[in-house]
Design a protein that fits this description.
single chain, alpha+beta, 6-stranded antiparallel beta sheet, 5-stranded antiparallel beta sheet, 20 helices, about 15% strand, elongated
């Protein structure tokens, strides 16, 4: 058993020295880590004193070393108690005088233990270390218990009181680990020797206690982010189990083989070697993989989730699908945060350059979805700190301290726990994720935060590539649409209107729109009737061109059957609404004039009113009917109105591009200008009137940018 004790002690010494060096080299700038380094070196000295007592049983300094050994144990517990006062370093730290005052009884007890015989009178070794305790040994035990329990109580208080909500879990799991190590210590080093008089496991209990305490403390002090202590404990349990499974059978076999009857040494050595080889081979080949899968199933599953999510995001920038398919893949990658990583609330905001805001694009849960202004404090903060931001960083990151009050308030108000900002190659903030709480209230541990940061970078690259591809496609589509629209306009817009005896028509058309179209035409209906048609089709590119071609086809193939305007509009409406090519709508007007009767019939699909000027009476009428644009409702029926007009009456049909034109002073071109021209030039022919209206229109809009086609038809009855 002595060999096992020595082994445990040596392992503990090595671990103590490693933690001392790690905290001195890596984390020396923090007081918490410096104090922990001091505790680690005292642990190494304490364990070395036990090793001295086990190996040098006849030493002249046996009693002195024993007293120092007990003093060091109490000193370690006292320093641990002080450490809990200043941990964590950013809040709820005790004042120095409180720490000093509460440490005085322990310091006095340490000196009494080390330099008097009031605690330890005698010490000897008879198979085990045996001590004779003095009258003040109960004081020693009391101080030991007070500081140990005091440390637990301080940590317990901080686990429910510190503001850094995520870090509370660290302290809770630390307490759980400390309790487990304390139970082993109390059981093996107090109950067994002092109650059951079994001293065999006393030193093992002390070594085990210190190993666990140091492992947990070093893990806690090595990072100021929330730590996944459950995973850490699983690793410890797994490695401990491996050590036990390997060590115990080998130790038993070697001990048992010593008791076997004498056999040939060569056969003995070969036999032992073969048995050990077979055992270790079977263990590492079959048992260890099974245990690893058993202990780390959740971790392995999480790794698979990480890799799967990375691959899904990477595919986004590689595909050449439609916008809807790209959006679906983005949404799937965002949804993965919920069904793979248990994040209960996520909102994704995309920059809207038209409104200078970050607009809600996609998400789930109950996170806020209102737009975020580009000038907001949160956006300005993210532009200055272009990386993942987790709520607890405002407590632990010195660079964020000046934003703690203002930005942390936003986090609390909107229930935000993590923000992932996304930037383009020009370092412009193009999007951001707001992440809420995890399910079951778990904090965002280091590993998940590392994944989210890589996820952010992957998503950032994929999003920027997607935006670039969309811009390229939009540019290519726009260029293609312009070419198609130009061809369609040349195809269907008449160079000269069809005329019949008894009415003269003239028109002008100004091609201002690259993606929209004004279509107008005239056609003979029967022997004595003339139909006049006009529509304004919005800036929808290929859809507008398709709509215009369908209208053109209907007008020229069906109009001869219908001598009343509403019949044509009804027919157009039914065809357009049922078409699989056209998914837009447009206003229109159709006028039919009978040269024999002088009757003018008109039907409007939400088009501008027909202006009719009676030159004899010098009066203007606006002729209109109720209607909706063509292509909205297949069940809508248009109606017509009729009027008998006098010879020399003048009619004006005009598109929206005429009255929506704005001059350099911001004023619209109005129908009043047209009416004034009609009144001043009522004796002119339709061709001359069109020329004068066109010249006035051009002069009015000379320095203006026009975006809509402009069309106007003038007819004059004879």
């Amino acid at each position: 058993m002595l060999q096992i004790e020595i082994t445990f002690i040596i392992i503990s010494i090595v671990i103590s020295l490693y933690f001392f060096m790690f905290n001195i080299i890596k984390r020396f700038r923090f007081v918490v880590n410096r104090l922990f380094a001091v505790i680690s070196i005292f642990c190494a000295v304490f364990l070395s004193s036990i090793l001295y007592l086990l190996l040098l049983k006849d030493s002249l300094y046996f009693i002195l070393i024993s007293r120092i050994n007990f003093s060091l144990l109490l000193l370690i517990i006292l320093l641990g108690f002080c450490l809990t006062h200043i941990y964590p370093r950013w809040e709820k730290k005790s004042r120095f005088w409180i720490i000093l005052f509460s440490s005085i009884p322990g310091i006095i007890t340490i000196f009494i233990t080390a330099f008097t015989d009031k605690v330890i009178i005698k010490a000897s070794y008879h198979n085990n270390l045996i001590y004779t305790f003095g009258s003040l040994f109960p004081l020693f035990l009391s101080m030991f218990g007070i500081y140990l329990i005091g440390a637990f109580l301080i940590l317990l208080y901080k686990s429910i009181s510190i503001e850094n909500e995520s870090f509370r879990y660290n302290i809770v799991y630390m307490i759980v680990g400390f309790i487990a190590s304390s139970v082993s210590f109390i059981l093996l080093s107090i109950v067994y020797p002092f109650v059951l008089n079994i001293h065999t496991y006393s030193n093992i209990g002390i070594s085990l206690f210190l190993i666990i305490i140091l492992l947990i403390s070093n893990k806690a002090f090595s990072s100021e982010r929330p730590i996944d202590f459950i995973h850490f404990y699983i690793i410890l349990l797994y490695r401990s189990l491996l050590a036990v499974i390997i060590f115990v059978p080998v130790y038993i076999m070697l001990e048992y083989s010593k008791k076997l009857p004498y056999i040939n040494p060569t056969i003995y050595e070969v036999g032992n070697s073969l048995i050990l080889f077979l055992f270790l081979f079977l263990f590492f080949r079959f048992v260890r993989p099974y245990l690893k899968n058993l202990f780390f199933y959740d971790n392995r599953k999480m790794e698979e989730y990480y890799n799967a999510t990375y691959k899904e995001i990477a595919k986004i920038s590689e595909i050449d699908y439609t916008d809807n398919q790209i959006d679906s893949m983005f949404n799937l990658a965002i949804n993965a945060l919920q069904f793979r990583f248990n994040i209960s609330e996520v909102t994704f905001f995309l920059y809207n350059s038209h409104e200078n805001t970050y607009s809600y694009s996609y998400g789930f849960g109950r996170m806020p979805v209102e737009d975020i202004s580009e000038d907001s404090e949160l956006i300005q903060f993210l532009k200055q700190h272009p990386s993942l931001v987790e709520k607890s960083m405002f407590y632990t990151d010195d660079k964020l301290q000046k934003y703690k009050q203002s930005i942390l308030d936003i986090f609390n108000q909107k229930n935000i726990f993590v923000i992932l900002p996304l930037f383009n190659r020009e370092d412009e903030l193009i999007a951001l994720f707001l992440l809420g709480r995890q399910y079951k209230g778990k904090p965002y541990y280091d590993k998940l935060l590392s994944f989210l940061d890589i996820y952010r970078i992957h998503f950032e690259v994929a999003l920027e590539n997607s935006i670039i591809l969309k811009e390229i496609k939009a540019s290519q589509t726009l260029h293609h649409d312009k070419i198609v629209m130009d061809v369609v306009k040349k195809k269907i817009i008449p160079k000269k209107l069809t005329q019949v005896k008894g009415i003269r028509l003239s028109s002008f058309f100004q091609n201002n729109s690259e993606l929209g179209i004004d279509f107008f035409d005239s056609l003979i209906i029967g022997r004595d009737k003339l139909g006049i048609f006009m529509t304004c089709i919005g800036n929808n590119g290929i859809d507008s061109a398709t709509f215009a071609l369908e209208i053109y086809s209907i007008l020229h193939s069906k109009a001869i059957r219908y001598d009343s305007p509403e019949l044509l509009l009804n027919n157009m409406n039914r065809v357009i609404t049922s078409s699989r090519f056209s998914k837009i709508y447009a206003p229109a007007i159709f006028v039919v004039y009978s040269t024999l009767s002088g009757e003018l019939r008109y039907s409007s699909a939400a088009f501008n009113p027909l202006l009719l000027f009676d030159t004899e009476k010098n009066s203007i009428q606006e002729l209109d009917t109720e209607g909706i644009p063509i292509g909205i409702d297949s069940n809508f029926y248009y109606k017509f109105q009729s009027i008998r007009i006098q010879p020399n009456s003048i009619g004006i049909i005009y598109s929206n591009g005429i009255t929506s034109a704005i001059n350099k002073d911001g004023k619209n071109y109005s129908t009043e200008r047209i009416i004034d021209l009609l009144k001043k030039n009522k004796n002119d022919s339709s061709a001359i009137l069109v020329r004068k209206i066109y010249d006035d229109y051009k002069n009015f809009t000379e320095s203006s940018e026009l975006i809509d086609d402009s069309s106007l038809i003038v007819f004059r009855t004879e």
